[in-house]
């Protein structure tokens, strides 16, 4: 399998290649402009020199007289001061009268074929191949006193000389370019390393895979999730959140919107916590889009202690209530089994003792007494209630209460043949179980423990549940609050309500009854104690409100 280069190396090589290409292109453009400018400057310099030499005093007379030695003596000092490649003096017949670099060319024709315009009195600049090579040269006419052209001055720069100048400039520019390239190398490496660090050392394909995994994970989660940036604009929301909050727009339409335009919640719920809490918050009860939910919040920290946004997860509060009810029910089942096991062990131990002492008649009577009591309750519950789960619950509560020294009495008129449509079996057991637990606990606090009475009836088109105890009672001031979540009176107050399961038992009872369209009443049980009465209609009714 062919191994691919890491992203950092590929990005570095790409930056280096692009930088080299850019520098090469810049160098070519620079060379073009420098070469053109150099040709222009040297051409103008040659033109000035040729024009000044043509106007030198005495030169016209010596040219007219063809005084070759005199011309040489006159021009030689200028040649020493000039940077031109050569200086040439010619006559109107285009023959050399002076050549600074090739004296052997005297009286030989001038090469290049560009003298016609000069002989007409014009100064020109041209690039031609002369006797010593290709050159950039300027030619100026020499005039006599009658303003007639009698000779030609040619001042030139060989192209090899121009190339040497270009090479020196390019070499210097190349040194700067190499330095710049090294800086680009360093910048590219630091940039790619910092970018890779910000990408958590991940390759682009890994990041793409993580994004897809995150999207799939968010869509698969049962909890609603949304995230906001530091400006409180929505940057993420999953399908569960849109469904639970009844948001019809797609995620693409919601991204970038201010959170206040998407969610309706209690005033200042989000803004109050942005500045005050940096470690997040958990299990806060809130109302989002008129739906009561439990919210968790975690800060997004790109840099330590710098909040870049927040991630919120939430779930329906009713789901938590259902889960709490189910866990409470399981716990009650476990407690009942433990109590029944304990009682069975005591019963077995007693029976074993009687048998070891060979008191067989007492053992038989003991077995009959135990069987008759349990059988009566079992026969009564099985005959009066059609729900096996409810029968098991009531038997367990009966044994549990008896283990604690409290008698659970069933009203002879008890009857339950069918369930209300608005209340399922689990919720019904939660209601009865919590009320019985509360009554037993209250009875145990009384100076003289008494019985707890239970009445269940499905007559008169409604389910009636009545639990009466002889406990310490409930103060009138507490009655409006006992069904609130977390409510629990202190043990030393002597009140009946202890808030089973840490204040959630009666809260769940009230929630299930309200959902079923029923109501619950609390009355005093003279001479002491409390009666909880529950009414649940079998046919759902439309509530006003």
TrEMBL record:
InterPro entries: HATPase_C_sf, HATPase_dom, His_kinase_dom, PAS, PAS-like_dom_sf, PAS_fold, sCache_3, Sensor-like_sf. It is found in: Cell membrane. GO terms for biological process: regulation of DNA-templated transcription. Keywords: ATP-binding, Cell membrane, Kinase, Membrane, Nucleotide-binding, Phosphoprotein, Transferase, Transmembrane, Transmembrane helix, Two-component regulatory system. The keyword Coiled coil does not apply. The keyword Kinase applies. Its EC number is 2.7.13.3. Residues 401-540 form the Histidine kinase domain. GO terms for molecular function: ATP binding; phosphorelay sensor kinase activity. It catalyses: ATP + protein L-histidine = ADP + protein N-phospho-L-histidine. It is an enzyme of class 2 (transferase). It is a multi-pass membrane protein. One of its GO terms (cellular component) is plasma membrane. The chain crosses the membrane at residues 12-34, 169-191. This is histidine kinase. It comes from Enterobacter soli.
């Amino acid at each position: 399998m062919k191994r691919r280069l890491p992203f950092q190396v590929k990005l570095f090589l790409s930056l280096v290649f692009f930088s080299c290409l850019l520098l090469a292109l810049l160098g070519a453009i620079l060379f073009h402009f420098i070469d053109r400018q150099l040709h222009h400057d040297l051409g103008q310099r040659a033109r000035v020199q040729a024009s000044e030499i043509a106007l030198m005093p005495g030169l016209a007379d010596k040219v007219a007289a063809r005084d070759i030695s005199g011309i040489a003596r006159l021009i030689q000092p200028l040649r020493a001061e000039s940077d031109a490649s050569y200086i040439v003096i010619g006559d109107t017949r285009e023959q050399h009268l002076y050549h600074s670099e090739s004296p052997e060319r005297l009286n030989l024709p001038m090469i290049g074929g560009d003298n016609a315009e000069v002989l007409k009195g014009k100064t020109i600049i041209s690039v031609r191949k002369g006797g010593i090579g290709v050159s950039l040269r300027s030619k100026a006419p020499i005039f006599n006193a009658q303003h007639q052209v009698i000779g030609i001055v040619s001042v030139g720069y060989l192209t090899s000389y121009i190339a040497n100048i270009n090479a020196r400039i390019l070499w210097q520019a190349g040194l700067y370019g190499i330095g710049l390239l090294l800086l680009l190398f360093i910048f590219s490496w630091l940039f790619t390393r910092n970018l890779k660090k910000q990408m958590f050392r991940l390759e682009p394909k890994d990041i793409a895979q993580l994004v897809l995994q995150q999207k799939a994970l968010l869509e698969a989660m049962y909890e609603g999730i949304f995230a906001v940036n530091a400006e409180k604009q929505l940057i993420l929301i999953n399908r569960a959140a849109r469904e639970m909050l009844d948001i019809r727009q797609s995620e693409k339409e919601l991204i970038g919107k201010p959170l206040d335009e998407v969610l309706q919640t209690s005033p200042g719920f989000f803004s109050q916590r942005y500045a005050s809490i940096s470690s997040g918050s958990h299990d806060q009860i809130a109302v989002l889009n008129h739906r009561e939910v439990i919210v968790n919040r975690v800060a997004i920290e790109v840099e330590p202690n710098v909040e870049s946004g927040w991630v919120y997860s939430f779930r329906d509060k009713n789901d938590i209530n259902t889960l709490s009810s189910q866990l409470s029910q399981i716990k009650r089942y476990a407690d009942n089994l433990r109590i029944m096991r304990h009682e069975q062990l005591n019963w077995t131990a007693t029976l074993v003792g009687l048998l070891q002492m060979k008191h067989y008649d007492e053992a038989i009577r003991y077995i009959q007494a135990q069987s008759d009591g349990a059988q009566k309750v079992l026969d009564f519950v099985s005959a009066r209630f059609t729900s096996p789960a409810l029968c098991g619950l009531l038997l367990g509560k009966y044994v549990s209460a008896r283990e604690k020294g409290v008698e659970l009495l069933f009203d002879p008129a008890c009857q339950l043949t069918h369930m209300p449509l608005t209340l399922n079996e689990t919720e019904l057991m939660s209601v009865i179980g919590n009320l019985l637990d509360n009554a037993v606990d209250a009875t145990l606090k009384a100076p003289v423990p008494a019985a707890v009475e239970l009445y269940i009836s499905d007559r008169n088109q409604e389910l009636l549940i009545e639990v009466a105890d002889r406990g310490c009672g409930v103060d009138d001031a507490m009655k409006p609050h006992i069904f609130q979540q977390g409510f629990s009176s202190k043990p030393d107050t002597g009140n009946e309500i202890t808030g089973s399961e840490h204040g959630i038992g009666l809260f769940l009872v009230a929630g299930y009854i309200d959902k079923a369209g029923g109501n619950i009443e609390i009355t005093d049980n003279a001479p002491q104690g409390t009666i909880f009465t529950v009414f649940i209609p079998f046919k759902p009714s439309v509530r006003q409100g």
